Amino acid sequence: MTLDIQQILELLPHRYPFLLIDRIVEFEPQKRLVALKNVTINEPFFQGHFPGHPIMPGVLVIEAMAQAGGIIMMHEIPDRAKKLLVFTGIEAARFRQPVTPGDQLRIEVDVLKFRLRATRSAGEIKGRAWVDGKLACEAVLTCQVLSRGPQARAEDAERAEAHAELVTPE
Predict the structure, then answer these.
(1) FRET label pair with 82: which of 1, 54, 98, 131, CA 20 to 30 Å apart?
(2) CA nearest 125: which of 1, 60, 21, 34?
(3) How would you label 142-169 residue by residue, b for 16+ Cβ within 10 Å and e otherwise?
(4) Which residues, 6 or more positions from 104, have their beta carbon under 8 angstroms from its beta carbon?
(5) Which residues are catalytic?
């Protein structure tokens, strides 16, 4: 399956200047996705990162991988307009080569874990970003689906506080 930009906009809440996926060229629901990001000198971050030597910030390459993984998760959520997908972890991030204007990122994400539940959906992916067949970045990312709105924020804060109590070392 492939997705164009309009279909991506239906799945992700991100918009310019933070939407970092242009097209989906392969999509196997709940398993794998391959996305493209055309990197242009018009990206707002190049103005300051770095003048005279533009390099796409590594955290934005990771964000592009997260958005690709987010498409996998949000595709399965029926009431996605009421939901928000957020990062919960980044592990084993490695930056292998710079990404510069004119590059096309090929973002490949493979699902490691995928859990859909009425109250708490979450996932873990292995992401890789390639430029001209060379690995530019890789990381393992985790995410969770949250509810949107004021009441949802209070419920999510309670869940986060309860989780923090479980993992805080003594």
Answers:
(1) 1
(2) 34
(3) bbbbbeeeeeeeeebeeeeeeeeeeeee
(4) 36, 37, 38, 39, 131
(5) 49
Question: To which residue do tokens 């996926």 refer?
Answer: 21
Phi/psi of residue 70, each to 5°? Answer: -60, -35
Q: Pull the structure tokens for residue 94.
A: 């490695």
| 14, 69 Cβ separation under 8 angstroms | no
Residues, the chain: 170
Q: What is the pTM of this model?
A: 0.87
Quote the CA–CA distance of 73 and 124 in Å, as a whole number. 10
- Domain ranges in the chain are 5-167
User: Is the CB of residue 122 less than 8 Å from the CB of residue 143?
Assistant: yes
* CA gap 138, 90 in Å, rounded: 10
Low-confidence ranges of the chain (pLDDT < 70): 151-170
Fold of 5-167: Thiol Ester Dehydrase; Chain A (3.10.129)
CA atoms of 98 and 131, how far apart (whole Å): 9
Peptide bond between residue 17 and the one before it cis (omega within 30 degrees of 0): yes
Here the tokens at position 33 are 């996705």
